[in-house]
Amino acid sequence: MSKAPIGVFDSGVGGLTVLRALIAQLPREHFVYLGDTARLPYGTKSPQTVARYSLQAAEALADYGVKCLVIACNTASSVGLPTIRERIENVPVIGVIEPGAQAACGASRTGNIAVIATEGTVRGGAYQQAILRIRPDARVNAAPAPLFVALAEEGLHEGPIANDIATHYLRPMFSPSDAGASVPDTLVLGCTHFPMLAGAIRRAVGAKVQIVDSAATTAASVDAQLREAGLTRTEGGEGLVRLLATDGRERFASVGSRFLERAITPDEVELVDL
Ligand code: DGL
Per residue in 7-26, pLDDT tens? Predict the structure, then answer.
């Protein structure tokens, strides 16, 4: 069983930032990554549609005999997790919201926490609820930053356009016009694409704000759960990574290479139907 792969799912290539953290944390594990590139973005779709797509993707990954399933998409985690957990039996299912909320609560001194995410994730309130469950005294302010997704995919994550858009989204929270308003000390990057814009985001919020994303904490959580269940792959060398997409092998390879920080060739990407 320990040789079985870990399934990782996202709406597209964004979850490769989470896969990168998982490989760094668990280099001996085998991974099957599925990006639902035919149907992205999830962030602008209704919760019902995202939940349906996410369940189909999770079921497809379960057919690969995965020992654990990581929902590496914030939008999918925010609406799909309970149903996926109910329907995919005997396989631990880990989303990115809870680990991200934990990281934020650990990093924040004042309890004043800002979250940026897709429209769907902000609307559903999953981060706000997860943070308040851990830290009931927290003040959480969440805002959508949808253009960051396109900037990251277009490779425009650095430079004047990225800086302007980061300022546009973040100034209302971090430099409020009301001088008496309190400013968050922590910012959660609640979308898989946003770590790609870390430089522009840092410039917009200033040096003192703690910026957290869920990739590393999710990887640590997967590691802990596998250990607890005795499912860690302890023998053998580096694990294998299998990449699946529902459309566009070339685009998955070219855009995904930046997210995974290693070259992906189109031949490596297998097309699947959900
Ligand atoms: N992966 C999505 C997320 O983390 C962002 C891209 C999309 O909207 O599908 O919310």
Answer: 999 999 999 999 999 999 99
Catalytic machinery residues: 73, 191
Give residue 236 CA to ligand 1 midpoint distance, Å. Answer: 34
Q: Where are the domains of the chain?
A: 6-95+216-271, 98-215
Q: Alpha-carbon distance 130 to 142, whole Å?
A: 13
In this structure, which residue's CA is closest to atom 1 in ligand 1? 73
Tokens linked to 117: 């995410």
User: Two tokens at 158?
Assistant: 């650095």
Q: Whose CA is nearest to atom 7 of ligand 1?
A: 41
Would you say residue 177 has pLDDT above 90? Answer: no
Going from the Cα of 235 to the center of ligand 1, the distance in angstroms, rounded, reads 34
Confirm or reject CATH 3.40.50.1860 for domain 6-95+216-271, answering yes or no. yes
Q: In the CATH scheme, what architecture does the domain 98-215 have?
A: 3-Layer(aba) Sandwich (3.40)
Residue 1 has pLDDT above 80, yes or no: no
pTM score: 0.94
CA of 77 to the centre of ligand 1 (A): 10
Pocket-forming residues, ligand 1, beta carbon under 6 Å: 10-12, 14, 40-43, 73-75, 118, 121, 149, 191-193
